[in-house]
Amino acid sequence: MDPREFHNALRIMWNLDRHELVEAGVIDADQEGHWLAFRDHPHATAVRMNDKRFDRLCKLVESRQPKRSAA
């Protein structure tokens, strides 16, 4: 990941909606506190996630990254 991709990943995290996180299995639909924590502090919340949820979040963020062009 280059600096531009990393910066974009941080932006992507800030723009994820609750339903997207639930559908990806990053947070549970019935856990309002998890959503509020992620909404208010997505990066800090991500650092505190267990490995399984963090892996799901990474896949979700990666799916939003622009495709790399072949050099």
Task: Give the helix/strand layout.
Layout: H1 3-14, H2 18-23, H3 32-40, H4 42-48, H5 51-64
Describe it.
This is DUF5659 domain-containing protein. With 71 residues, the protein is mostly helical. It has one domain. The protein has five helices and no strands. The chain starts with a helix and ends in a 7-residue tail after the last helix. The relative contact order is 0.18.
Please give a handful of descriptors for the protein shown:
globular, 71 residues, mainly alpha
Could you tell me the number of beta strands?
Answer: 0
Q: What would the principal axes of the Cα set say about the shape?
A: globular
Rg over CA atoms, rounded to whole Å, is 13 Å
Number of helices: 5
- What share of residues is helical? 55-70%
Oligomer: single chain
In total, how many domains does the architecture comprise? 1
**Element-level helix/strand string:** HHHHH
Q: Report how far the terminal alpha carbons are from each other.
A: 15 Å
The assigned structural class equals mainly alpha
Please tell me the overall pLDDT. Answer: 93
Instruction: Tell me the strand percentage band.
Output: under 5%
Poorly predicted runs:
none
Main sheet overview: none
Write a short abstract of this structure:
The chain is an all-alpha fold and 71 residues long.
